[in-house]
Amino acid sequence: MQLKQMNTYLFFNGQCEAAFKFYEKVLGGKILAMMTAEGSPAESQVSPEMRKKIMHARMSVGDKVLMASDAPPDRYNAPKGFFINLGFEKPAEAEGIFKTLAEGGTVQMPMAETFWAHRFGMVVDRFGTPWMVNCEKAAT
User: How many alpha carbons lie under 13 Å from residue 61 in its C-beta half-sphere?
Assistant: First the structure.
């Protein structure tokens, strides 16, 4: 078996477009696709209130890819059981990203030094996405 790629795919409760524009800015990414059902072949299969919502978004951050869409309201579940881990080489970079992601969100574990990291913190951002921000120490 030769796996071509493995990407994170997020579901939002109607906030996909705003979240992706925020992540593009914060993470220095580039939105490659942001499609709604409106005007697409799928438009007639989608409820009127979902036609302007995002049915697929794709963003690159360096050589990584993040994808997402808006879930229909009756199918949305808040994310749980995972975090997206962001790794940085410089503590100041980790602290800056953590602070920005925490604005309007909920800090799960404040940014601090740990036995494995110069800085580590956990936050759920204002869009409901769980993040771990990590600046690991060199292995000894």
Answer: 17
Is residue 102 located within the same domain as residue 55? no
State the Cα angle at 4 between 31 and 1, rounded to 5°. 160
Domain hosting residue 49, numbered range: 8-73
pLDDT block averages, 10 residues each, the chain of length 140: 93 97 97 94 90 96 96 91 96 97 98 97 98 91
The count of structural domains within the chain is 2
State how far the Cα of 61 lies from the Cα of 112, in Å rounded to an integer: 25
Helices (H), the chain: 16-27, 91-102
What is the predicted pLDDT for the residue at 134? 97
Query: Is the pTM above the cut of 0.90?
Result: yes
Report if residue 64 sits inside a domain: yes
115 and 58 belong to one structural domain:
no
pLDDT value of position 19: 98
